[in-house]
Amino acid sequence: MRFFPPGQVPRITEHPTDTTVARHDPATLNCKVQGTPTPTIQWYKDGVPLKILPGSHRLFLPAGGLFFLKVVNSRRESDSGVYWCEARNQYGVARSRNATLVVADFW
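-> structure tokens emitted (107 positions)
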């Protein structure tokens, strides 16, 4: 008889926090999770799943965070918005608190 360790529902151990950053500066939103097996992390902006395209100014960090090489705020695109992360494995889903990212145009 084989023993299979019990699974663990994902749990957010570090939630992203509200952040104000100057345009073109870097920023990081943290999201740390626990769970067995290791949960996958999906980031959302304003309710839409974030997709990171090659060459993007956004990166998913190995520990689960979302890193902005430089935040943008233009007519075409803005990083300002409400973000959250979601951790998922076959035992369940955990959602972080919302974090608002504000891109400030400091003169």
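The domain at 14-104 is CATH 2.60.40.10 (Immunoglobulin-like).
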